[in-house]
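Try this one yourself first.
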């Protein structure tokens, strides 16, 4: 019996040894040398060996090296170590093959161990090693080859007792090879993914194995089972699986090495898992390589360890080793490999190779492998490929369905997620908590509350309501639907709250812009739950992305730095978005530049930030950079870039992006389609918008709203109404945005009568009249169509008012030129407790600019600074325009942004301000400076520039700028540019050229063209051309009073008094009244207004006495009245007297009486100043020695020392 038992044990040991040899074939042998005592003994033995024995050993070693040379051909062969080595240059692909040399170099040169480096750091250090190798700066031993390198600082020393009489102290599973049987470590192959599955026979080295020592008794296990620490007491059953602290695991590992407890395959597997869990993948791999016996779980654990620490290339390399050593790929290992390609986000090619390999070995039918592939294709945005794979799968489980749903959700196709969920239930597959979480999230994103309640029914039926994950998803869904009370109810009913629960309830408040409530929940979370993660901070930062809440956002930014979360990509993205939404692009750019790691969302957010701040060129440059980096472009990336092309200037780039979307397979994406409709529409290509909409496989209300909005923006009310009717025919219900866009398309009294009133009736029938946005749009529509009374009536009848309704009535009054009423409404708005925003402040500043009331404008600017809007793009430019129109160029330059932060609108405002002040050369210089800074001029730029040339008499320069508009800058001439050219030619007396220009204009002439021509005819007394211009002007608008007045003036200047009388009689017959001239002066917060021949002012007697004094003084100085500007047929003396009744002279006399000596006088007039008044102001400024500023509707005249800034050309 004893002999049979011994024979049986011998066979078992033989089988184990054979199995171990087969499994270990081809692996890298990175084991330590045995004890230092044995090595020293071997060296002494070799030293005292006789000469013959040395010769034999040398021959034997030479033979061995010859075999190694045959085996390791190419650049990795080492050759005979006693002969001259052959040098081969290395590359980064030799990372695995020269790993021993690299580890030795790290220890000797850098004083660090390989195991202490992360995968990325090791790769970077290897690049330095390659440079040193290729420059032949290393020691000779590196080029000859190193068998084993020092990989860790841990001393794996195991003392072996060879006496059979004593109880062995080593665990039976620790096999020790004698020195003579040691095998040098094999080099790993380069990580060449193009040859991922290419077998190499020279890696299939034979591994020497020795029998296992006797088994160690289990007294250590009994001792550990009584340990008070649960992690240690459960070691017998669970190994290292329960260990939560690395130091505890290392201590247990030490006990195993000392032989205190048995150390079988199960314990080794859990040890590998433990080290990888703590991120010590080097130690995990060393443990794996040191295992004398492995099973499939060992290899799976090692593979999952690489994936866990994100060492994805190393996972690929490990898989290659397993294949080359003859190990059959398991479904778990391949699924982990696919997951590595999935999570890396940059190994799509390798993933495709793995897919091909799976087809070859027949593992594609495995449900786990198939599911991992589904997730892989979904991650890279190829949901159509994932769908095809899904349909071909012979077996599906709930995880399979859920993976495909996640893919569609990430792609933004939420309707498809719902369809997949319905199909899954139809096939009688019950969803788990992950499935329900995805579907509930989709319901929240779709805003489909009814569908969400149906899914809630499924949750209750399946008994998942107590599941924490499901409850968290319910909170998030209710928050997305605006049902914060229901979200709170679910939260308070939960027995257990995890971090996600707290994040969900904070998100519910944040989604509904309840900033203070969100922060209050955050306060509770920090005191009750204690744990706060990056998602918590990101959610709170989202709700702080407004000017009002930015102070909280900056505080949270400080907390981010304190918690060390600034390196978190998600937090960085949210910070970037917060500053962008709050109108702080500089801060957003700073966050982006300092982010240590950026993902696709980071790039998308920065592109969107540039678009939001109208920096389209920067947005497109950033998109191009993303494309050049070969990052995977999502539909969000393309959508943001398309938004940057939503004007005529970038339509070519927009078409290129359209082509890229088609190449990327995104043309069927609903969001991309909607963005394309918007882009073409905002560029004026509404026909292209309709074509895109027609070709879209699916359309929703956003699509139709985009098209209706495009027609509205391009003033196409009939087409907008047609699109609205087609939308109804398709069965898509209109929402409030549809109504707003439709109302925005009506802009004339005719539109109001034909369509606007009927749409108002439709609004009342459908109940949209209670929506505050629709109320605002109705107020705006009536005002735009000329019915300000109806706008005011609707506003007064509102039961509750909001900031947007106040802004609407303010804008309506501004549109009708009622500037004083606008300022009164601003005061009422503040009294009503409403917060002024960017819009209301911009309108108020614009009104102050039009009225040229500096003091009110300065007060508004102070309010802008107080409310924190000084960095707002539009508000700053409105303030600049206000100071420019009030003649305060120093203040314009003071608040002007620096050139590298200056928008095109700022450049345009600066050019316009210089032109209005008569600084025409500075206007030209500003234009050329704008070009030097890379800002492209637009329609408004050239209007300002041509206007400056016109008022400055720069005829040749103006014509040159006009010619360059389309040829150099691709800006098509519009009617405003043509008016400037006609005015330019007309003022200079080139009336014939002006008439020819009108005939050749690229756009039909309108009233502005003929009015400008008529004014020029008055200046140069061209009666015939003036008559023709007046006739054309009256054809366009028979009630235009300016046509009658200007033609009457032409007749008067040419002495045709009979014609003058006829024109005035015709005006009386048609009840057309001339706009009365008036001038005003503001002194001590009081505005004094004067009309022609003013009689009602309290100081009128003093004023006329002062005028008499002025008349006498300037006559003595050489003044002679130009009675051609007196447009009544009277004697010369009466004509001169009529000239002294002009309102601007009365205002001047009043100012001289009521202002201190030496102060600047400012007079404002609503009509163009006449030539004789201009002469009077020059003489007066020289006689009284004071600066006088006269502002008419077109420009400033600054009189000083008898001269005017306009050089008598205006």
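Now uncover the answer:
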């Amino acid at each position: 019996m004893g002999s049979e038992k011994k024979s049986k044990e011998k066979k078992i040991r033989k089988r184990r040894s054979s199995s171990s040899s087969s499994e270990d074939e081809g692996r890298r042998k990175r084991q330590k040398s045995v004890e230092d005592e044995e090595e020293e003994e071997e060296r002494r033995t070799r030293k005292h060996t006789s000469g013959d024995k040395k010769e034999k050993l040398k021959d034997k070693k030479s033979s061995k090296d010859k075999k190694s040379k045959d085996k390791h051909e190419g650049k990795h062969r080492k050759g005979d170590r006693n002969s001259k080595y052959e040098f081969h240059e290395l590359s980064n692909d030799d990372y695995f093959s020269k790993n021993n040399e690299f580890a030795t170099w790290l220890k000797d040169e850098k004083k660090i161990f390989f195991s202490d480096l992360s995968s990325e750091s090791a790769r970077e250090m290897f690049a330095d090693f390659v440079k040193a190798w290729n420059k032949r700066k290393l020691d000779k031993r590196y080029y000859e080859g190193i068998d084993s390198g020092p990989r860790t600082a841990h001393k794996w020393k195991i003392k072996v007792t060879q006496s059979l009489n004593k109880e062995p102290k080593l665990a039976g599973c620790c096999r020790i090879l004698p020195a003579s049987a040691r095998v040098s470590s094999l080099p790993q192959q380069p990580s060449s993914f193009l040859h991922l599955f290419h077998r190499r026979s020279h890696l299939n080295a034979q591994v020497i194995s020795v029998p296992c020592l006797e088994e160690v008794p289990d007294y250590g296990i009994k001792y550990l089972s009584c340990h008070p620490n649960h992690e240690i007491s459960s070691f017998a059953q669970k190994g290292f699986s329960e260990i939560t602290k690395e130091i505890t695991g290392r201590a247990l590992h030490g006990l195993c090495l000392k032989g205190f407890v048995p150390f079988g395959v199960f314990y080794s597997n859990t040890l590998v898992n433990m080290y990888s869990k703590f991120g010590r993948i080097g130690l995990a791999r060393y443990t794996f390589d040191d295992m004398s016996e492995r099973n499939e779980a060992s290899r799976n654990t090692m593979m999952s360890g690489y994936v866990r620490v994100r060492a994805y290339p190393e996972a690929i390399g490990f898989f290659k080793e397993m294949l080359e050593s003859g190990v059959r790929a398991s479904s778990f290992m391949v699924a982990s490999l696919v997951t590595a390609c999935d999570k890396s986000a940059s190994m799509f090619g390798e993933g495709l190779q793995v897919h091909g390999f799976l087809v070859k070995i027949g593992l594609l039918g495995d449900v786990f492998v198939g599911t991992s592939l589904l997730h892989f294709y979904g991650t890279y945005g190829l949901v159509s490929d994932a769908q095809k794979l899904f349909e071909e799968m012979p077996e599906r489980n709930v995880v399979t369905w859920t993976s495909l749903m996640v893919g569609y959700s990430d792609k933004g196709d939420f309707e498809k997620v719902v369809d997949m969920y319905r199909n899954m239930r139809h096939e009688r597959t019950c969803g788990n908590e992950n499935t329900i979480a995805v579907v509930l999230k989709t319901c929240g994103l779709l805003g489909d509350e009814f569908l969400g309640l149906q899914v809630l029914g499924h949750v209750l039926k399946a008994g998942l309501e107590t599941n924490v994950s499901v409850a968290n998803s319910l909170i998030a869904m209710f928050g997305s639907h605006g049902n914060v009370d229901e979200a709170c109810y679910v939260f308070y009913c939960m027995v257990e709250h995890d971090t996600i629960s707290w994040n969900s309830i904070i998100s519910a408040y944040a989604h509904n812009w309840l900033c203070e409530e969100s922060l209050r929940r955050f306060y509770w979370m920090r005191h009750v739950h204690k744990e706060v993660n990056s998602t918590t901070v990101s959610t709170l930062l989202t709700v702080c992305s407004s000017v009002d809440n930015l102070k909280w956002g900056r505080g949270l930014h400080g907390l981010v730095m304190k918690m060390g979360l600034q390196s978190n990509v998600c937090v960085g993205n949210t910070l970037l978005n917060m500053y962008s939404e709050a109108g702080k692009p500089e801060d957003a750019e700073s966050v982006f530049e300092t982010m240590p790691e950026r993902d696709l969302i980071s790039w998308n957010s920065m592109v969107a930030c540039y678009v939001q701040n109208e920096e389209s060129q920067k947005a497109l440059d950033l998109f191009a950079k993303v494309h050049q980096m070969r990052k995977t472009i999502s539909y969000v990336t393309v959508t943001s870039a398309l938004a940057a092309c939503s004007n005529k200037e970038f339509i070519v780039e927009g078409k290129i992006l359209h082509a890229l979307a088609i190449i990327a397979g995104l043309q069927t994406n609903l969001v991309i389609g909607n963005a394309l409709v918007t882009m073409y529409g905002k560029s004026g290509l509404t026909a292209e918008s309709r074509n895109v909409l027609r070709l879209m496989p699916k359309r929703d209300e956003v699509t139709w709203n985009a098209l209706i909005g495009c027609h509205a923006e391009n003033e196409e009310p009939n087409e907008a109404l047609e699109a609205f009717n087609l939308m109804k025919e398709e069965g898509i219900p209109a929402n409030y945005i549809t109504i707003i866009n439709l109302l925005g398309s009506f802009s004339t009294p005719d539109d109001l009568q034909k369509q606007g009133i009927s749409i108002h009736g439709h609004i009342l029938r459908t109940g949209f009249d209670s929506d505050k946005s629709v109320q605002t749009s109705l107020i705006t529509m009536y005002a735009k169509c000329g019915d300000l009374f109806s706008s005011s009536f609707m506003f007064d009848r509102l039961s509750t008012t909001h900031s947007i309704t106040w802004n609407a009535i303010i804008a309506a009054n501004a549109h009708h030129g009622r500037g004083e009423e606008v300022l009164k409404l601003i005061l009422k708005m503040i009294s009503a407790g409403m917060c002024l925003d960017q819009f209301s402040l911009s309108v108020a500043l614009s009104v102050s600019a039009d009225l040229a009331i500096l003091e009110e404008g300065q007060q508004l600017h102070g309010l802008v600074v107080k409310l924190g809007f000084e960095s707002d793009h539009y508000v700053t430019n409105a303030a600049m325009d206000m100071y420019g129109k009030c003649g305060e160029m120093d203040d314009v330059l003071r608040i002007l942004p620096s050139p590298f932060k200056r928008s095109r609108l700022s450049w345009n405002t600066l050019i316009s301000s210089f032109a209005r002040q008569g600084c025409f050369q500075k206007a030209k210089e500003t234009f050329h400076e704008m070009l030097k800074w890379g800002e492209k001029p637009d329609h408004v730029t050239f209007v300002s520039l041509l206007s400056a040339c016109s008022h400055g008499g720069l005829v040749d320069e103006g014509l040159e700028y006009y010619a360059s508009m389309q040829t150099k800058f691709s800006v098509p001439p519009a009617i405003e540019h043509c008016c400037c050219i006609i005015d330019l030619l007309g003022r200079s007396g080139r009336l014939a050229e002006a008439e020819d220009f009108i005939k050749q204009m690229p756009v039909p002439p309108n009233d502005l063209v003929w009015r400008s021509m008529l004014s020029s005819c008055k200046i140069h007394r061209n009666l015939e051309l003036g008559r023709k211009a007046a006739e054309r002007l009256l054809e366009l608008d028979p009630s235009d009073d300016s046509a009658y007045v200007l033609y009457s003036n032409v007749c008067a200047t040419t002495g045709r008094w009979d014609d003058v009388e006829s024109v005035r009689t015709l005006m009386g017959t048609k009840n057309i009244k001339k706009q009365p001239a008036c001038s005003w002066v503001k002194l001590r917060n009081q505005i004094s207004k004067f009309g022609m021949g003013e009689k009602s002012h309290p100081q009128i007697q003093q004023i006329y006495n002062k005028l008499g004094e002025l008349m006498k003084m300037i006559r003595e100085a050489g003044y002679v009245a130009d009675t051609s500007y007196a447009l009544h047929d009277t004697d010369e003396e009466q004509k001169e007297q009529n000239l002294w009744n002009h309102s601007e002279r009365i205002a001047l006399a009043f100012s001289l009486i009521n202002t201190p000596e030496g102060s600047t006088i400012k007079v404002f007039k609503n009509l163009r100043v006449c030539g004789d008044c201009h002469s009077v102001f020059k003489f007066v400024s020289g006689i009284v020695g004071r600066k006088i500023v006269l502002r008419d509707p077109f420009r400033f005249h600054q009189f000083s020392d008898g001269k005017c800034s306009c050089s008598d050309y205006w």
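Discussion: The beta strands are 1078-1083, 1086-1091, 1161-1165, 1188-1191, 1196-1200, 1203-1204. Confidence is low (pLDDT under 50) at residues 1-84, 156-216.
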